Amino acid sequence: MLRRAASLLPSSLRALSQAAGPSMQRGYADLNLSDPQILKKFMGVEEHLGVYADSRSTLSGMLNELLESLKQLPDSSDYRRAVEATVQYRLKVLEQNDSNLAVEEVLDAHMEELILETKEELGLVPLMTTWKPWTVPEDYEVPVVDYTSADAILNAPPAPK
Predict the structure, then answer these.
(1) Is the CB of residue 63 less than 8 Å from the CB of residue 90?
(2) Which positions ≥6 away from 84 have C-beta within 8 Å?
(3) Which residues cross the membrane (predicted)?
């Protein structure tokens, strides 16, 4: 994700600095966008998502805490199974990659963004425990809406005039 952003930003910065004139070119010449920390700061990631001294251990700890909190929910809950699968995948990626940059590339997200998502999920688990969306009354019928395939409409012969 960062590598992709870094490849896009320099060309736009060159265009911006050329349009602004020589006074602005000096300001961007010192900007090293290949450094992930500078790029994050330039893109506003730290400003909007926060800064963590050790984002790897923070994320890992929160993911493990989320796994523990999910144990309150029934094993058959689709929500529990989906979140557990996501958490276990993220923990596996953290375990198999030594650098934060590699983790961010594999998960296609900033570490700060993953921490925020995990924090929000931790807040949702108690609500799901209260709401119990997996319990459906015996007499409940799922409404069925007739579906017409877009292919049937698009590939239909033209109407006669």
Answers:
(1) yes
(2) 67, 70
(3) none
Structure tokens at 137: 């009354």
Neighbours of 34 (CB within 10 A): 12
**What single letter denotes the amino acid at residue 96?**
Q
Q: Which residues in the chain land under pLDDT 50?
A: 14, 17-18, 20-26
- Rounded CA-CA distance 49/63 in Å is 17
CA 121 remoteness from chain centre:
12
Q: Provide DSSP, 35-47.
A: SHHHHHHHHTHHH
Percent of the chain with pLDDT over 90: 47
CB distance 20 to 53 below 8 Å: no
In angstroms, the CA 5 to CA 33 distance is 9
